[in-house]
Amino acid sequence: MGGEVPEPRRLSRALSFGCGGVPEEALHLVFGYMDDPRDREAASLVCRLWHRIDALSRKHVTVGFCYAVEPARLLARFPRLESLALKGRPRAAMYGLIPEDFGAYAAPWVAELAAPLDCLKALHLRRMTVTDEDIAVLVRARGHMLQVLKLDKCSGFSTDALCLVARSCRSLRTLFLEECIIEDEGSEWLHELAVNNSVLVTLNFYMTELKVEPADLELLAKNCKSLISLKMGDCDLSDLIGFFQTSKALQEFAGGAFFEVGEYTKYEKVIFPPRLCFLGGLTFMGKNEMPVIFPYSTMLKKLDLQFTFLTTEDHCQLIAKCPNLSVLEVRNVIGDRGLEVVAATCKKLRRLRIERGDDDPGQEEQGGVSQIGLTAVAVGCRELEYIAAYVSDITNGALESIGTFCKNLYDFRLVLLDKQKKITDLPLDNGVRALLRNCVKLRRFAFYLRPGGLSDVGLGYIGLYSGNIQYMLLGNVGESDNGLIQFATGCTNLRKLELRGCCFSERALAVAVLQMPSLRYIWVQGYRASRTGQDLMLMARPYWNIEFAPPIPESAYRVMADGQPCVDTHAQVLAYYSLAGRRPDCPQWLVTLHPASL
Amino acid sequence: MPSTAPVELDFLGLRPAAAAAAEDDHHHGSSTTSAAAAASSSVRGMKTSAIASIGAHKLRRVIAGDEATKQHQQQQAPMTVFYGGAVATFDGVSQDTAEAIMKMAMEVTASSGGRIVRRDAFRGNLTKDMPLTRTKSLQQFLQKRKERLSGPGPYLPASGGRSSRVGAATMTFHVKEEAA
């Protein structure tokens, strides 16, 4: 819950504050300055009046898991929301580990909230199943007021629904569809958007497969002078010359592709808008096409090179020209040498993401990113707040360097790839201790190793020094149940935990859950599972849902949202606090565990 | 993936074992054969799922095997395979190789349902990445990249720039998606 009940003395003063001295309107104003949800929670516990004022003045709520509360209950508690964010499927869905029929349907939320929430202007759904009908209901109820619609990694709808949005939501400023799986019934939706909207600021259909007409983009740029950000799918960059000429205000662009490499003259004519400071996509950009962005390199603050064809040497050449980067996303083809260039050049870097490629041509012999590159970046880029890296090798020393130099680190994610046989320096117990002790601002932490990467002692350190970390993903850590229990004993603020590929028993998982006072959500895959999950019942308690996906025989066949087979064959456990009780829409393969079932 | 073993055996059967091992070590690229006979052959009546189950990598290996028998090659011709709404055209396929591919495909079809083979192939590919999977968008990009590196795509006419970037390798076939 968070927050302490005030002492009687302060309580008395608070009451008099409300009743005798200061009008209710003033309290409304004061509450308006309280943004942190936990502060809000604490304030709402003071007395009934404060509870009611919090309810009436709360403008935004994030529901961390859509099965944690019923729509009707949320409506009753916060009737004047302007902004609502909902999260659905477990994060593992991004990696193909959760079948499509898991659930996380938007329908109940839209049906119950779209009309009654009179003030709702912004809706953000993540990893949910959204149908055309859901969007139709939303548009009918809120179309005239909707300013922000974010469907983030959602699936289940088509461009027909987007047509409806485009025609009916004329106040829309943000349309965000990144990484959604959308049935493409044609590009009419973009034409409708261009014709009907004149206030759009952000349009994002990045990493969808939607095809659009360049002429519609030009029309959009002409009609929406406010367009600042466009992130789109692959479209030959030479077809966007007109759009770039028209969109004077554009600052962020991602997408586009170099389909005809070797014909630089075609792309020579590409001139980006003058205020451009974010570039991404640029699919298939290689050495010969890089000069297209050289004129803008000193102005770039964000650069996403995950989908390019650049070698390590190319990365070095390009990044050396970008001294003002604050966000950089690359694949590990950048190599340690590229990271040394980053360290020497990008002193303002705040976010660095190093994705995992696939035996890139042009990747140097030893390949990938290791402690050498990470140490260089830690020493050279001390403003870093977010590091996510897939590495081939790592040492305790590198983690210590990150702890020593990156004091502002808020989010750290490390995956140790399993391709390289010999890792320099395992286990990483002392390195992780140093990092966690020194990075006191850390809120999110992911550490995905291989067996032997972290001992029980190291796992205990993670718990002991977890500080204010609220989210963790841990993979292949620890040696025994004892390590997990030591870990859990230290985690006082952890709210969300994901575990993969560990050796723990169901009993240890249950004991660990009960030890972590702030935990409200846990997802586990790859543990010592029984056929029935019976020892998981040890974690049973009021308002705690336990859902168990038994181990699947190899012959079973389940499909994910995009039609690919689901690669998950390990047992999974999902357990979470819920005011809503058991899910009414559980798929057949998911077993809900509760005392009555014994 | 037990069901893929027969496929491998067929490849080995194309040439002596020792030569096969040596060939596999060096099949990073194969040069385009200058000979391009006008005649082309097409495969008809073949069950589509069997061909669909054969990964592009395996097909490239078949082509690479052709190198060993270059001095003995008979008439070389493009080979076009139609399956599942896609068209695959292979340059410089000898008649022996073409017959071996067809025989392999028929054997795979006969030994098990094509669907099972396809399913296992999918799972095999993805399972290799377990437990370290990539986000789907990055997987899609890497797949597209692989297709591009495999040869001229629907947007990419052959050009010197491609060769210089990809290195010495010049691919010998391309895949083109057709609207279903």
UniProtKB/TrEMBL annotation, chain A:
GO cellular component labels: SCF ubiquitin ligase complex
Domain Transport inhibitor response as annotated: residue spans: 79-125
Taxonomy, superkingdom: Eukaryota
GO-annotated biological processes: SCF-dependent proteasomal ubiquitin-dependent protein catabolic process
Domain COI1 F-box span(s) in chain numbering: 21-60
InterPro entries: COI1_F-box (IPR041567), F-box-like_dom_sf (IPR036047), LRR_dom_sf (IPR032675), Transp_inhibit (IPR041101)
Listed name of the protein: Coronatine-insensitive protein 1
Species this protein is from: Zea mays (Maize)
Gene name of the record: LOC100281510
Automatic annotation (TrEMBL), chain B:
A Pfam family the protein falls into: Jas_motif
Extent of Low complexity compositional bias: 30-41
Keyword Nucleus: yes
Main location (coarse class): nucleus
Compartments it resides in: Nucleus
Gene Ontology CC terms: nucleus
Domain Tify intervals: 72-107
SMART domains reported for this sequence: TIFY
Keywords recorded for this protein, A-Z: Jasmonic acid signaling pathway, Nucleus, Ubl conjugation
Span list, region Disordered: 20-41, 146-167
GO terms for biological process, alphabetical: regulation of defense response; regulation of jasmonic acid mediated signaling pathway; response to wounding
Chain's role: Repressor of jasmonate responses.
Notes on the domains: The jas domain is required for interaction with COI1.
Family to which this protein belongs: Belongs to the TIFY/JAZ family.
Name of the molecule in the record: Protein TIFY
